[in-house]
Specification:
The complex is a heterodimer of chains A (about 1000) and B (about 550).
Chain A lengths: L2 H16 L9 E9 L10 E4 L6 E2 L5 E7 L4 E5 L6 E4 L8 E2 L10 E4 L2 E4 L7 E5 L11 H4 L7 E5 L8 E5 L12 E4 L2 E2 L10 E2 L3 E2 L14 E7 L2 H4 L10 E6 L5 E16 L8 H11 L11 H5 L5 E11 L3 E13 L6 E15 L4 E15 L13 H7 L7 E3 L2 E2 L9 H7 E21 L2 E20 L15 E24 L2 E24 L28 E6 L3 E14 L3 E12 L8 E11 L13 E15 L10 E4 L5 E5 L8 E14 L4 E13 L2 E5 L8 E5 L3 E18 L2 E17 L9 E5 L9 E5 L7 E4 L2 E4 L5 E3 L4 E4 L5 E11 L2 E11 L2 E4 H5 L34 E3 L2 E16 L3 E16 L11 E2 L13 E2 L6 E12 L1
Parallel strand pairs in A: 1-7, 13-18, 51-56
Antiparallel strand pairs in A: 1-4, 2-3, 2-5, 5-6, 8-9, 10-17, 11-12, 13-14, 15-16, 17-18, 19-20, 19-57, 20-21, 21-22, 22-23, 23-26, 24-25, 26-27, 27-28, 28-29, 29-30, 29-31, 31-32, 32-33, 33-34, 34-37, 35-36, 37-38, 38-41, 39-40, 41-42, 42-49, 43-44, 44-45, 45-48, 46-47, 49-50, 50-53, 51-52, 53-54, ...
Chain B lengths: L1 H18 L11 E2 L10 H10 L1 H6 L4 H6 L19 H7 L7 H22 L4 H22 L2 E2 L14 E2 L1 H15 L14 H19 L9 H15 L33 E5 L7 E2 L2 E2 L5 H4 L27 H6 L5 H4 E3 L5 H4 L3 E4 L1 E2 L17 E2 L19 E3 L17 E5 H15 L7 H12 L21 H9 L5 H7 L24 H6 L10
Antiparallel strand pairs in B: 2-3, 4-12, 5-6, 7-8, 8-11, 9-10
Chain lengths: ~1000, ~550
């Protein structure tokens, strides 16, 4: 062999290994066939293996497979998610077609759990797994929106209609006093930081625009399934980050078979879900007359029509993947444009993803990699969560006198005689652009040291960089900011970089009837966050509406008066987390399951006296249905009893909170910002859970019921320093606790399964009672929270943290109507008035299939909670009619006097109960077409179609601010204040595959 | 295969080792230190930081100013329909019906704590003797307000400067001793230059005079004992030291507060800078900072009181927004000025202000005009008229914006507007007050007749203000506005300078009735300790009655 030939052979061997080529077996035969469901539809992605051998084939989009098996093979096994596994004797056949039977719960299905997988039947913790076919059909959704209303115990609140804004996700109640109640997100084994790299800033007078969603860079079409880890048995393996539950996102991988291309395209329109609660021009006129106010300007307009836009939403997604038994790959690309409903707001997304998995070294080594890059660009409207008295675009529009034109012609803006900002001026003079690029890359190697022992290393890097530029042009007036007459420009950049390195060793073995899985692991995680900004005001151009040039201040900062420029930069201390963990799972006779897990987490954030935290969990399950005595009954198709106990932590307080720290600020003064708390540590959530998984009547009625008790001890509390002290708050672990007790029920019933008809109804119901217990706090509020913004509301707090009350309980003077002069009669002092935390979270869904049609409707709702309508108090209240402002429709016929003070009371607290038709879709399966076209379908869907609620406001779900309003680190909940209105959208989507 | 296995295990263990970390908390944008030995901490910058704490605390309308003024007869913040309710915090102050949850009582308590803490931190980082004396002055100022407002003084020893535990608390009597000792000790150490923006011997003397004068009323607020003769003698000595200094009455009263009061902007006012500043906050016109002084916030002095349309139209871009339409005073106070005393009462023009926007200075009453003499209008389109009538909750939608006499003590600095910082210096300790305190000490010790040294001092001031001399001056009066009552004279000179509450308590008048305050309870002689502080510091005790 010459060297060249040797090289050629080496290279080709290598290529053969790396590039998905099959190794030939001796003494084999090939079996082909097609796998279909009971209606004859092709099943794609079903696995076909020869029993007793390793490896297998996957079916293609047309359901066909081709499997090479040893000549000795007797039986083939066909399995697919959602179907009962089937075994077929080979006999002498070389072509075997298989029809699969739908199963409601495939208990042999393998689900992703923390640092591993488990068969569904062996699970002893509270997990919910939602696969792609059950996701909500929301155009351009972030992963959290896909689950809204679908998972028992999961409360998802989409808090703003601006595309791409943060979504509030709470698993089984409110565990924590301060912010940081979001679950931990784990994508393909890589824990995310949870923050977005989009700079968030406030502009004087306008306030802060809503936070960006940290998951916008994930292509929803790439998601295979999402596991929600709810109890400690499930989440304690994530230690000090597991207390709020964990959401594990698993992305799609290539399946073996011919390369397939999946194409999805959709387009849609949007509109207001609900008309705003203000007077029409004619109603306004009659109210003006009633109050002797003189602001009728003669015209009749609907101010909202001026600031809304109706543009087409577009989504295009292509994915292709394929491979062989030993080498699989998948790549995808998504481009989408989601114009916002409010003028000059939009979200564009471009997301590319590549992953592959290769088996090497006689299949002992599995090498996997994935790379995802998402770039989003946002245009943000001047709608903030906390505008002051001069308002935001929404408050200005709500208040705009509907008898006054906003514009008389091009650049002819009306000056409001009462000094209010003209919303058109605000919209035209305000520009705000943000771009975020997020990269997630991971690489992993798993090596089977012996057949039962696998070592795996996983390294992941998640880098996000964001830039944002905003301006208020100088020709605006009345915003109360530095911009008036001068202009303001802001530029900000941020970088967020987190890395994780995980080593795991997994041993699985079956000793007769005892199946054992042992896991040991080490993880190192680090994350850092940097930001740089510059602001300038007093620009030389665009200060006069008649002479505007199309150059944004944020692209031309040097034009501002140098003395008025300010730059700054900061870097948060890196958070380093070092962990050791282990889990042991035992399954005896597939009936008696036991799991024990333990994690030790060390963090550089923790105080010097508490560097490591320890998080154990125990759980057990009894599959009653598999007992001998159950064999003869036909009622239960599944009956499994579970119980668990465990501890997980929450460490989401700022790094550096445990140190003495001094910072130089703009004036060269050295400011002590923090004095050390060496005892500072994570807060601990101890969860006990008892659950039953059940199925009746051969799987026609299936469900899960869980009861849980969660107790947060050592709750982190941004407590006021005992004066004398630096300003701000010091993080302490309070000697009290937070309790969340409740139960959840998930049910799915197949009502009709007959011929061409299939109809199922499902629902989930979660009840959580939340309470903060701190007897030393006495009966008075420990801290007032829920600070209002807006006219006449400085230093007005409507919520509190108090002993024996739910977190954020409303603390208000009770309102008892109006006296004969129209002034409010209220109690002299405030009392605990209501709970902003929904006690009931409900999801309802139905699925009707007839021949090739599928109809799906998903409702979600929250019950038994209160919302504070600060919009009604501070923006559309009666007193403002005398300033030429519009007022709420609900005030027609009121006995209130316009001079009645705008004062917080239960007058503005309303029941927030709602049920919303979140999404509805009708699909038609066209099926295969042409030579290569497969599985084509067309879907028409609608989102936010209607809401059933007595709440007077845009929407009891949207516009409910949950931000930290008062700088204490304690967020408020359930305060409605001039948010971005909820969007109703309709989308037409086309999906097909080619192969 | 063996080799492969080995290779993988070896690289895995290597990665494991390199992955290990000591979990150090590394700071990138702040200096972390666990003690006071860090060379990165420059004590001078810590001292600057402590001075800057005075900015918000003394400028803002809702901090010390509010607690010392809006609880008295000379200031109130009526609720005007949709504006200025702020959950009723203002109304309860004037009416004396506040409770433990009052947010201003909390924020001032915390703000004073920051000043005290930052001053104590300076002492922990090896300051020079003079820096230490300055820090002691600032710490004393915080303790002075603590004892005045709350009757209790939480403090930290220098060794415990960075503790987050419960700090010890001085009683009123202990605080008086501490203040007296510390202030006396720093007078010889501080710089004799008597720069008004730094702690100086005269500033320390002034503060010590306040402590000694208020001592008996602090010890027993409801029924103060007679003044101690020795204390009064000391006040007179301290006062004479100040009077013998380089201060003099400013020829035009409002020049003490105008844009040129620090001498930086001779183009406005009547031409003279204030020579009455013993301790002032240095607001740098235009710029955000010079020499580390954080400057801003003086605009609250006029914004808090002016109507939205008081000058320009809100947002017309000329002088920004005029005001927030809140603070007013009552007719009884306006009427207390005698006919000769119009310089201090005002409602008069001021060069550089009135010619630019029509705005007058002093106690503003009546129809408001612009610079051309045209009538300004309110948001209902009616002439903007500051009526003497005022209510805690304005009942008439058509006059609620207009009611209440407004108070422009600080003429706005129009030369530095629209985002720039205004150059008026905030007067914290003023010479005229030192003169009046000396007069009061004479009355309390050696001049009960009120016709001796005290009258000379008072009439010296009145003459400087172009007001007719008084025949006598007394420690008691027939009412709040008895012209011979030294309390009334102090009010006319020092209104809206954050002394009224302390004066009313010292003269035993705080619980009497006045316009829009009927009943009262002795508990209001002190503010409540904020509940969050009671939880954080068990050494504090809630004040009686709360």
């Amino acid at each position: 062999m010459t060297i060249q030939r040797l090289l050629a052979k080496r290279v080709s061997t290598l290529l053969l290994c790396v590039l998905f080529t099959l190794t030939a077996f001796s003494q084999t035969k090939t079996i082909t066939g097609k796998v279909t469901d009971d209606k004859g539809n092709a099943i794609q992605g079903a696995t076909v293996t020869a029993k007793g051998t390793k490896g297998g084939a996957s079916t293609g989009a047309d359901g066909t497979y081709s499997l090479t098996v040893p000549a000795s093979a007797k039986v083939i096994v066909i399995s697919s998610v959602g179907f009962t596994q089937k075994e077929v004797p080979i006999g002498g056949q070389s072509s075997i077609d298989v029809s699969m039977v739908t199963s409601q719960t495939n208990l042999n299905e393998v689900v992703v759990i923390g640092y591993g997988t488990a068969r569904k039947k062996e699970l002893t913790g509270a997990y919910s797994v939602i696969s792609a076919k059950d996701f909500n059909k929301v155009p351009s959704a972030t992963p959290d929106q896909l689950l809204q209303g679908r998972v028992p115990g999961l409360d998802v609140t989409v808090a703003s209609g601006q595309p791409g804004t943060a979504v509030q996700v709470k698993i089984r109640g409110n565990n924590s006093i301060r912010s940081g109640t979001d679950p931990l997100y784990v994508v393909d084994g890589i824990p995310l930081d949870g923050r977005s790299a989009r700079p968030s800033f406030g502009v004087t007078g306008l306030g802060n625009t809503p936070d960006a969603n940290a998951l916008t860079w994930i292509n929803p079409n790439d998601i295979e399934n999402i596991s929600v880890l709810k109890d400690a048995a499930a989440s304690a393996i994530y230690g000090s980050r597991g207390a709020n539950g964990v959401i594990i996102i698993t992305t799609k991988a290539g399946s073996s078979g011919a390369t397939r291309i999946d194409v999805a395209a959709s387009a849609g329109t949007n509109g207001l879900m609900k008309q705003p609660d203000v007077l029409s021009a004619s109603q306004y006129r009659s109210e003006l007359a009633k109050y002797g106010a003189k602001s009728d300007s003669g015209a009749s307009i609907n101010p909202f029509n001026e600031i809304l836009q109706h543009k087409i939403t577009q989504n295009y997604s292509v994915a292709f993947g394929g491979g062989t038994e030993n080498s699989k790959y998948r790549a995808s690309f998504l481009a989408s444009r989601t114009p916002g409903l409010v003028r000059k707001s939009a979200l564009d997304k471009y997301i590319g993803n590549v992953n592959g998995s290769f088996k090497l070294l006689d299949k002992k080594l599995t090498f996997t990699f994935g790379m995802s890059v998402g770039t989003t660009s946002e245009q943000i409207a001047p709608v903030s969560t906390n505008p002051g008295s001069t308002g935001s675009l929404i408050s200005n529009t709500l208040q705009w006198n509907p008898t006054l034109l906003m514009k008389h012609g091009p650049l002819q803006y009306t000056v409001n005689p009462n000094g209010q900002v003209n919303p058109m001026v605000f919209s035209d003079a305000y520009n705000d652009q943000a771009a975020v690029t997020t990269f997630l890359g991971y690489i992993s190697g798993a090596y089977k040291i012996i057949p039962d022992l696998e070592y795996k290393i996983l390294y992941g890097a998640n880098y996000g960089t964001g830039s944002r530029g905003a301006e208020i042009q100088g020709w605006i007036s009345g915003t109360g900011s530095n911009a008036d007459g001068k202009g303001v420009g802001i530029v900000q950049n941020t970088q967020l970089f987190s890395q994780s390195l995980t080593h795991t060793l997994t041993y699985t073995h079956k000793f007769n009837d005892l199946a054992f899985t042992g896991l040991a692991g080490y993880e190192y995680y680090t994350t850092k966050f940097k930001t740089q900004y510059s602001t300038g005001y007093d620009f030389n151009y665009n200060t006069n509406v008649n002479n505007l040039i199309p150059i944004h201040y944020y692209n031309n900062m040097q034009d501002s008066k140098q003395a008025n420029m300010q730059t700054g930069a900061g870097q948060d201390p890196a958070v380093d987390l070092q962990s050791y963990f282990s889990r042991l799972q035992f399954s005896y006779k597939d009936r008696y399951n036991l799991a024990v897990s333990f994690r030790a987490d060390g963090s550089n954030k923790f105080g010097s006296n508490n560097k490591y935290g320890y998080f154990p969990a125990f759980s057990a399950g009894w599959r009653i249905v598999d007992e001998d005595f159950m064999k003869s009954q036909h009622i239960f198709s599944n009956l499994n009893l579970r119980a668990s106990w465990g501890r997980a932590g929450n460490q989401s307080f700022p790094a550096g909170a445990a140190l003495d720290r001094y910072r130089y600020d703009a004036n060269g003064q050295l400011n002590p910002v923090n004095y050390a708390n060496p005892n500072l540590k994570w807060e601990t959530v101890t969860t006990s859970d008892v659950g039953i998984d059940f199925g009746f009547f051969n799987g026609r009625l299936t469900g899960t019921v869980d009861g849980f008790i969660k107790k947060t001890t050592d709750p982190l509390f941004p407590s006021t320093f005992a004066a004398p002290a630096p300003s701000g708050t010091v993080y302490r672990n309070l000697p009290g606790y937070i309790s969340n007790k409740g139960f959840e029920l998930g049910l799915t019933g197949v009502i009709v399964q007959h011929g061409d008809w299939y109809w199922s109804i499902g629902g989930n119901f979660t009840y959580v009672k939340n309470k903060f217990v701190f007897p030393a706090g006495g009966t008075a509020p420990l801290v007032l929270t829920g600070q209002l913004n807006g006219k006449g509301t400085s230093a007005t707090f409507v919520q509190s943290i108090a002993n024996d009350q739910p977190i954020d309980v409303f603390y208000l003077r009770k309102f008892h109507g109006y006296d004969q002069n129209g002034f409010a009669i209220t109690d002299g002092s405030a009392s605990y008035a209501g709970d902003p935390n929904p006690k009931w979270t409900v999801g309802l869904f139905t699925n009707v299939e007839y021949k090739k049609f599928t109809f799906v409707a998903n409702f979600h709702g929250n019950y038994d909670f209160f919302i504070y309508n600060n919009t009604l108090q501070s923006v559309t209240g009666l007193s403002f009619i005398n300033n030429g402002s519009n007022i709420s429709k609900t005030l027609i016929g009121t006995k209130e006097n316009p001079a009645n003070p705008v004062s917080a009371s239960t007058r503005y607290m309303f029941s927030g109960n709602y049920m919303k038709l979140g999404n509805l879709s009708l699909s038609y399966k066209i099926g295969d077409f042409g030579k290569f076209g497969k599985n084509a379908s067309v879907t028409f869907s609608g989102n936010n179609l209607f809401v059933i609620s007595h709440y007077p406001g845009f929407d009891p779900e949207v516009n409910v601010s949950t931000v930290d309003q008062n700088g204490t680190g304690i967020p408020s909940r359930g305060i409605d204040y001039v948010g971005y209105p909820s969007v109703r959208s309709f989308t037409l989507a086309l999906n097909f595959s080619l192969n | 295969m063996k080799a492969n296995k080995f290779l993988i295990l070896a690289s895995a263990s290597l990665l494991t080792v390199t992955g290990c970390t000591k979990l150090d908390d590394v700071q990138h944008d702040s200096i972390a230190t666990s003690g006071n030995s860090s060379t990165a901490i420059k004590v001078g910058d810590l001292l600057t930081n402590a001075y800057n704490d005075l900015n918000a605390l003394l400028h803002n309308q809702d901090q010390v100013f509010s607690l010392e003024e809006t609880v008295t007869d000379e200031a109130l913040v009526p609720t005007r329909g949709g504006d200025w309710d702020d959950n009723g915090v203002w109304r309860v102050l004037h009416a004396h019906t506040w409770d433990v949850t009052h947010t201003q009582a909390q924020s001032v308590f915390i703000g004073l704590g920051k000043l005290e803490s930052d001053a104590t931190t300076v002492l922990a980082f090896n300051p020079s003797a003079e820096q230490a004396a300055e820090a002691v002055f600032l710490r004393s100022l915080a303790q002075f307000y603590y004892v005045d407002l709350y009757g209790q003084v939480p403090y930290r020893t220098v060794a415990e400067y960075n503790s987050i535990g419960a700090p010890p608390v001085l009683t009123t009597a202990q605080a008086i001793d501490t203040l007296t000792t510390n202030l006396a000790a720093i007078i010889p150490v501080l710089s004799n230059a008597n720069t008004p923006y730094l702690a100086s011997p005269d500033a320390a003397r002034f503060l010590l005079m306040k402590v000694l004068l208020n001592k008996q009323s602090w010890l027993n607020r409801q029924t103060p004992a007679a003044a101690d003769a020795g204390d009064m003698a000391q006040v007179i000595t301290l006062g004479n030291a100040i009077i013998g200094g380089s201060y003099s009455f400013t020829p035009h009263y409002f020049d003490n507060f105008g844009p040129n009061n620090g001498g930086a902007d001779p183009g406005v006012g009547f031409g003279s800078a204030s020579k009455e500043a013993i301790f002032a906050y240095n607001n740098q016109p235009g710029a955000a900072s010079t020499n580390g002084i954080s400057s801003a916030g003086i605009d609250a002095r006029w914004m808090m009181t002016l109507h939205y349309n008081s000058y320009g139209h809100k947002g017309d871009g000329v002088y920004g927004g005029a005001g927030w339409n809140g603070f007013s005073t009552i007719a009884d106070f306006y009427n207390a000025f005698d006919a000769s005393d119009t310089m201090r009462r005002g409602n008069v023009g001021y060069p550089g202000v009135t010619d630019k926007s029509g705005l007058l200075v002093g106690l503003l009453q009546g129809v408001q005009k612009d610079e051309k003499g045209a009538t300004r209008v309110d948001r209902n389109g009616n002439p903007l008229t500051f009526n003497a009538t005022v209510n805690l909750v304005e009942p008439d939608p058509l006059t609620l914006e207009d009611n209440g006499i407004r108070v422009i003590k600080y003429p706005p600095d129009y030369g530095n507007y629209n985002g720039g910082h205004q150059g008026n210096q905030l007067q914290i300790f003023r010479y005229a007050d030192a003169v009046l305190m000396t007069a009061e000490a004479h009355l309390r010790s050696d001049d009960a007749a009120g016709t001796g040294a005290s009258l000379t001092l008072v009439n010296g001031l009145r003459t400087a203000r172009k007001a007719a001399p008084l025949a006598s001056i007394k420690l008691t009066g027939s009412g709040l506005y008895d012209p011979n009552f030294i309390l009334a004279e102090r009010q006319k000179e020092l209104y809206w300078e954050s002394w009224r509450r302390q004066d009313l308590i010292r003269f035993g008048m705080f619980l009497t009735t006045w316009a829009l305050k009927t009943a009262d309870d002795p508990k209001f002689l002190l503010f409540p300790i904020p509940p969050t502080q009671l939880v954080a510091n068990p050494n504090l005790k809630q004040n009686p009655g709360y």
